[in-house]
Amino acid sequence: MLPADELAAVEVDNIKYYYNPAWRGIKHGIFTRQGGYSQAPWGGLNVGGTVGDDLQAVRSNHSLIYDKLGMNQSRSCTTWQVHGADVVVATGPVSGRRWLAQADGMVTNLPDTPLFMRYADCTPLLFYDPENSAIGIAHAGWRGTVQGIATNMVQTMQFIYGTQPARLQVIIGPSISCEKFQVGQEVVDALEDYFGTLDGLMRRDASDGTAYVDLWAANELALHRCGVENVTVSGICTYQNTDEFFSHRAENGRTGRFGAAISL
Asked: CA torsion angle for 195, 196, 202, 208 (degrees, to 10)?
């Protein structure tokens, strides 16, 4: 794991996003909630169109993100995120529809084809293969994590683009931390079933035995098992930083979604 300070922050016109300065060949950013047109409780740069916010504000927020990153919004691709592990190959937007498919991962090797996803405690995963000029983005909640979204992303890039996992670079972005992600036994069981271990993936409260799961460690383990060595973990907890990020759990479900985008 690379140190958290490998991700740098940019603030322009009250809009803030994080990126990896080592990724010089691509445009990318994980945006905070700061700036934007949305009013409370979606205050700021909400990009979720199904949370009750004014849709014109949401569209304007999207445009701000593409503008700040210098991306071609007319070529942008996204998915209908369903907390699963399916991955789609993006070749461009689908005519007459805003999303490509019901899926939680996208990959492409086409220039000028931004990939965009939305988050509010689930984990952003950004992928970059500099050797084969391929990129990917995924949405990894606990369900997607234990269904293998990280593994499916790596394997899809291997099969489609000839990606060598040891050369692949991955960002694990801001999401809810282990300290705040309290879960029930069904989540613990699903985690153990998928990984075959719980070591380093969860902790229990000493006073009452309550379980807390580490999505960062779980996705990093999945990536390492695929042969990925270069993983940067942001270490930023959305629950504990609602001044910067939307948090579904900390804000009791009444909140927005922050966006992440990546483009060759």
From this structure: 140
pLDDT class of 95 with cuts at 50, 70, 90: confident
Q: What residues does each domain of the chain span?
A: 4-263
pTM above 0.90, yes or no: yes
| C-alpha to C-alpha distance for 166 and 169, rounded to whole angstroms | 8
Structure tokens at 207: 């006073």
Architecture of the domain whose range is 4-263: 4-Layer Sandwich (3.60)
Q: Distance between CA atoms of 139 and 48, rounded to whole angstroms?
A: 14
pLDDT band at 193 (very low <50, low <70, confident <90, very high): very high
Structure tokens at 139: 């949405």
Structure tokens at 222: 């999945």
Q: Three-state SS across the chain? A: CECHHHCEEEEECCEEEEECCCCCCCEEEEECCCCCCECCCCCECCCCCCCCCCHHHHHHHHHHHHHHHCCCHHHCECCECCCCCCEEECCCCCCCCCCCCECCEEEECCCCCCEEEEECCCEEEEEEECCCCEEEEEEECHHHHHHCHHHHHHHHHHHHHCCCHHHCEEEECCECCCCCCEECHHHHHHHHHHHCCCCCCEEECCCCCCEEECHHHHHHHHHHHCCCCEEEECCCECCCCCCCCCCCCCCCCCCCCEEEEEEC
Whether residue 41 is preceded by a cis peptide bond, meaning omega within 30 degrees of 0, is yes
